[in-house]
Write a structure and sequence with these properties.
It is a single chain. The protein is of the alpha/beta class and about 240 residues long.
């Protein structure tokens, strides 16, 4: 999707001895996590609730700050950037897919998907319209342009949320339990869509899940427990 950078031979994401503690009692959410994620990989983070996978996703996405360690994203040490620079990095290079969709109920499908482009401010109205239609076509939702979220099924809302995450052509998609609020049939469809986007667009995806079936869609499964990485293995398809 995105053009290759001079650093394209390096991992897209390098997580080096990252730890995260919370509160005055210094609760350890992550402890010395070290992971490399290559461009075009689909990585599944697995573990029970409270294992640290959502905390790690938030750090990767720049939504929270590490207590120690380094996170190198596309050659930039995120842990040394100002809040403004991290916000700009997220806006340009990271897309989010949430368990509960996070679509704005007062906006149409078209308007929801256009939001990242409008916030970025770098495209004309005609270019935004074109990109939105192309991305909704990619996820099979082009016939729902003028629908509101309340008129969509859960699976359709998640497809729209994926289109919104991809419309600004990010380097990385971060998906936090993207099938957790869907029935099994729609969950399978969303996973198939993510896999298609990963393969057809070479889109890098990091997805947190507690489901073995969902995790197996990825290229790698990183298992976490008590804030630690306990295994990192390739998936045999």
């Amino acid at each position: 999707m995105a053009s290759l950078s001079p650093l394209s031979n390096l991992p897209l994401l390098q997580i080096d001895s990252v730890a995260k503690t919370y509160g005055e009692h210094h609760v350890q959410a992550l402890s010395a996590v070290t992971i490399n994620i290559e461009r075009g990989e689909f990585v599944s983070l697995m573990g029970a609730s409270g294992c640290g996978k959502s905390t790690l996703l938030n750090l990767i996405a720049g939504l929270d700050n590490a207590s120690s360690g380094r996170i190198i994203f596309d050659g930039a040490d995120v842990t040394t950037l100002t809040d403004e620079a991290v916000t700009a990095l997220r806006a340009k290079k990271i897309g989010f897919v949430f368990q509960f969709f996070n679509l704005l109920s007062t906006l149409t499908v078209e308007e929801n998907v256009a939001l990242p482009l409008e916030l970025g401010g770098a495209t004309s109205a005609s270019e935004r319209q074109k990109r939105v239609f192309e991305m909704l076509t990619e996820v099979g939702m082009e016939s729902r342009l003028k629908f509101y979220p309340s008129q969509l099924s859960g699976g359709e809302m998640q497809r729209v949320a994926i289109a919104r995450a991809l419309v600004h052509k990010p380097e990385l998609i971060v998906a936090d339990e993207p099938t957790g609020n869907l029935d099994s049939e729609n969950g399978i469809k969303v996973l198939e869509l993510l896999k298609h986007l990963n393969k057809s667009l070479n889109q890098t995806i990091v997805m947190a899940t507690h489901s073995e079936e969902a995790a197996a869609v990825g290229d790698r499964i990183i298992r976490m427990k008590d804030g630690l990485v306990v295994s990192d293995s390739l998936v045999v398809h």
